[in-house]
Amino acid sequence: MSKVLKTGGGIVLALVLILGGMMLLTNGPAAAATATSSRDDAGIEHVDSVQPLPPNVTFEQIKAYLRQAPLYQLALGQLKRGQERSPGYCPAMKLRSVHLLVAQGPQVDGNGAIVGGVFRESWMGLNCGDAHPRLNVWTVVQANRAPDVFLSYNGTSIADPRLQRDGYPMAMASANHRVPNCARMEVADTHFDTYEGSPMPASGGRRVRPWREAWLMVGCEHAVKVVMHFIPDSTGTSAASHAQESVLLR
Known about the structure:
The protein has two domains: about 1-10 and about 160-250, no CATH class; about 10-150, no CATH class. About 25% of the residues lie in helices and about 40% in strands. It has helices at about 10-25, 60-65, 70-85, 160-180, and strands at about 1-5, 35-40, 45-50, 95-110, 115-125, 135-140, 150, 185-195, 200, 205-210, 210-220, 220-235, 235-240, 245-250.
């Protein structure tokens, strides 16, 4: 049985459409490559932008903005909370910034200061044996309000935080198909698998392809791989999980 939900509206819907569009641009055979990247000697290994940066903004400016206090301290606080609950965590774990995605914007004011944009920075956990969790910190900047800094699920999911949250009950239902007596399981890791089907019309004239992810659910001394399907269109993004596709790993 499948569980279906549609999420739409606001910055978060724009994020999932933007991210889906970015992946289509970088992976689609007939798409124009608009994302760019660079090497950061200060710690961020790679930087990508969904759209070309405005002519008056540089990657170095964005990185400096995200590293300023107290914004950077907020990010570090989120990372500390996230790494301590990651599978395979050990006290010796160190984090390395491996990727910064400029998902939206940025916008700058008349003085060239960043006043808007959406950024996702991914960090890799090291020094704990074979455990290498990928933690994702989002920073959403809007004019006339304090920036929001928060975690999404670990791993390589391209679903935005709200879509992940709304998809959790479906993931839990599929996991309970294999572990029926477990009241609560956590999403320990995610993996973007592949795109499914043809591009669908989305807002702003974009065409975005549906995609599939695998989520690792852990709890009650069990681990279950759950398959999540995401189908964006002009009104939102539908998410579905089919219980028969779940696999009991432990």
